[in-house]
Amino acid sequence: MIEIQNLKKTFRTADGEFDALNGVSISVADGEIYGIIGMSGAGKSTLVRCINMLERPTAGTVCVDGVDLGKLKSKELRAERRKISMIFQNFNLLMQRNCLDNVCFPLKLAGVKKKEAKVRAQALLETVGLADKAYAYPAQLSGGQKQRVAIARALASDPKVLLCDEATSALDPKTTQSILELIRDINRRLGITVIVITHQMNVIEEICDRVAVIDGGRIVEEGAVADVFSAPKSEAARRIVFPEDELAALPYAEERIVRLVFNGSEAAATPLIAGLAVDEGISANILYASTRNIGGKVYGKMLVGLPGDDDAVKRAIDYLNGDGVSAGELVREDSESTKGEEE
Questions:
Q1: pLDDT tens digits, one per residue of 109-142
Q2: In 10 A of CB 335, how many CB atoms?
Q3: Sheet with 210-215, edge to edge strand ranges
Q4: In degrees rounded to 5, what are phi and psi of residue 161?
Q5: Distance between CA atoms of residues 51 and 159, nearest Å
Q6: Nearest-angstrom CA–CA distance, 58 and 209
């Protein structure tokens, strides 16, 4: 269990003090894949660096399995850090060493004998699908292969926690998908707790169980991924879920807007929106859709416009919610301000 309570990190700059984190509190269960999402400058990278004490918090606590990392002496902290590995956007591989030696490096630092380290490193390269690249150098690898080597190296210390700081941001969509599948497989097979730091919503949707939205150094929203992304309550979450170009395209009429998140819904012979019209007598206007069919299951998102009647909206949401589908109403700021003016 990772428990972060009232975490604060203040930097001193030429213009004065800057609060990168201001009272962050989250809990991550053992074996969970937990996402932290925010735009650039929100504080997410500072937060992940505070988790393993690469940055010392100004105030607050970080406890891993009941151990308060902030109270440890240097030697004790180094021992605890071996349980918390990290992978980065730019891979951080040693370019003058081959893949096998890169994976061996943390084992060497830990005092593992050379022969034993090589056996362990070769097994880890096999785990990440690169057994045949043991003697290749980073310059000879693709971006995805470099990240796989970085993951193998991160696993060398047999960690309990894997921190992923924008680990797929430099990769193309297909490679990103393969790396996320690898991380999810490692989580399931090894039981490693994973914390994913990203600005990409599709990364969170793909593998995370829960998500926290960070903005201005504060956690502004937290919950199950489907709940947060289907009906975001904070302005920061709405900006992530609905980029400005998508929001600008929405009609500002009397329609109520419901967002659907498809996370492995069985592809049905009768489309869901058509079924809503036939079974419930409610016509929905598809405003935006980005879905894909993988192996007979649907993934992606959709925005639909519904009549303004409260009963119709409730019945529609009840109908649309189901296995692999989460539906929730999007409350737009213009609607809220309009209601306030009318009241």
A1: 888 999 999 999 999 999 999 999 999 999 999 9
A2: 14
A3: 84-88, 161-165, 193-198, 33-37, 210-215, 218-224
A4: -130, 135
A5: 14
A6: 29
Per-residue burial over 195-206, b = 16 or more CB atoms within 10 Å of its CB, e = otherwise: bbbbebbbbbbb
Q: Is the pTM of this model over 0.85?
A: no
Specify which residues 259 forms β-bridges with: 303, 328
Rounded CA separation 331/328 (Å): 9
- Partner residues linked to 196 by β-bridges: 35, 164
Whole-number pLDDT of residue 109 = 86
Name the residue with tokens 């969170």.
204
156: helix, strand or coil: coil
Copy the structure tokens of residue 310: 């409260």
Backbone dihedral angles phi then psi of residue 217, each to the nearest 5 degrees: 80, 10
Compute how many other C-beta atoms are within 10 angstroms of the C-beta atom of residue 122.
17
Q: Which amino acid is at 172?
A: D
**266, pLDDT greater than 80:** no
For residues 262 and 291, is the Cβ–Cβ distance under 8 A?
yes
